[in-house]
Design goal:
The chain has 191 residues and is of the alpha/beta class. 43% of the residues lie in helices and 23% in strands.
Length: 191
């Protein structure tokens, strides 16, 4: 049986502006969409709040949720689990909103089939930079990358961009207003 809600998956390489685009959409449509908060076993960083940035669990708690079938998807990354719970998905739907996942292409590949198996309509959007040079400039502008990590992120971005044809929509983030309008059109045409 198909669920009345559409789950949106927004994806793209690091630095493309996924969170920035999402923040703009959320501010205008807080009553219609809500981002899935990821669950993790890593320790909170300064300023991170449980339930806002992540749900922070112990490794044992997370593994219990895996065994109980409560995790829609998960991965072990650098010794910590990250994933999304069915409880979080159901919480958002119970408030009458369409859930939004902001994930990398690997996450989308795991999520889409599992969400469809659960009866959700799924709409996927791949956000692309206007060029690799622009992506490089955006990553440098963050001020969080040294040359080695910048080169790794750019190499990963090249690989991730090869996945764009597996998405329902590909949108170039050339100007924030344009990207927000296009992603918003995708989200609100079907919800």
């Amino acid at each position: 049986m198909e669920n009345q809600y559409t789950v949106f998956i927004l994806s793209g390489p690091s630095g493309v502006g996924k969170t920035t685009v999402w923040d703009e959409i959320r501010s205008k449509h807080v009553d219609r969409v809500e981002r899935i908060v990821t669950t993790t076993t890593r320790a909170p960083r300064p300023g991170e709040v449980h339930g806002t940035h992540y749900y922070f669990l112990s490794k044992g708690e997370f593994e219990s949720k895996i065994v109980a079938g409560e995790m829609i998807e998960y991965a072990l990354v650098h010794g910590n689990y990250y994933g999304s719970s069915s409880e979080e998905l159901e919480r958002i739907v119970s408030h009458g909103k369409n859930p939004v996942y902001i994930v990398d292409p690997q996450g989308m590949a795991h999520l889409r089939p599992e969400l469809m198996r659960r009866g959700y309509r799924v709409s996927t959007v791949f956000l692309m930079p206007p060029s690799i040079d622009e992506l490089k400039s955006r990553l440098r502008g963050r001020g969080t990358e040294d040359d080695d990590s910048l080169n790794i992120r750019l190499a990963n971005a090249m690989v991730e961009m090869e996945e764009k044809d597996f998405y329902d929509y590909q949108i170039v983030n050339d100007a924030l207003e344009n990207a927000v309008a296009k992603v918003g059109a995708v989200m609100f045409a079907r919800s």
